[in-house]
Amino acid sequence: MTDQAKYDAVLQNDESFDGTFVYGVETTKVFCRPSCKSRIPKRKNVRFFDDAEQAAKSGFRPCKRCRPDLLIYQPGREAAEKIKQLIERFFKEKSDLSAELLSLGFSAHRIAEIYKEEYGQTPVQYADSLRIDEAKRLLETSDDDIVDIAFASGFGSVASFYRAFKKNTGYSPAKYRSNNGGE
To answer: Where are the domains of the chain?
Structure first.
């Protein structure tokens, strides 16, 4: 493959060439994948390398945007995993959960997009499923009042608890308890 063909791949941000070569920019001493969305460098400032190791040995550092030093770079997956861990930790406390999620540096809309792309459901749907599972566990293992279970499971009101529980299980909480989980 000629250097001009490689540069054409860089101009087109062609992902199909990732793993085939990396390019370094002489003026910044940064190297990137062909698919990197960073500003396209002038051709005279570009050097091509077979791999990240070769670029690093030549004095270039990896781009922080496309991470050519990693075999697979999936920032969405990493962010989704952090979101999931926070949901699992704070699902009972909605205000704490919201604050923790926003501390990741994404908007609420972007958090929902990242999570749904990775897991096929929204963070709210996942948190609600955890709340329902906790409510089922409490209904099966405790004699607590249903109102107390609703709040202990993280629901903001008894009405929202009843609605979500019935939608998810097909039973009211009292019926679920009397059937020992509907089994």
So the answer is: 3-62, 75-178
pTM for the full predicted model: 0.59
Work out the number of other CB atoms within 10 angstroms of the CB of residue 87: 19
Q: How far is CA 8 from CA 16, 37, 124, in A?
A: 12, 14, 43
Interval 72-85: pLDDT, tens: 556 678 888 999 99
Per-residue burial over 95-129, b = 16 or more CB atoms within 10 Å of its CB, e = otherwise: eebeebbeeeebeeeebbebbeebeeeebeebbbe
Beta-bridge partners for 23: 32, 48
Is 36 catalytic? The answer is no
Of the ranges 77-81, 86-90, 155-159, 172-176, which one carries the lowest mean pLDDT score? Answer: 77-81
**One CATH from 3.10.180.10, 3.30.413.10, 1.10.10.60, 2.40.160.40 for 75-178:** 1.10.10.60
Class of CATH domain 3-62 = alpha beta
The kind and range of the H/E element at 96 are helix 94-102
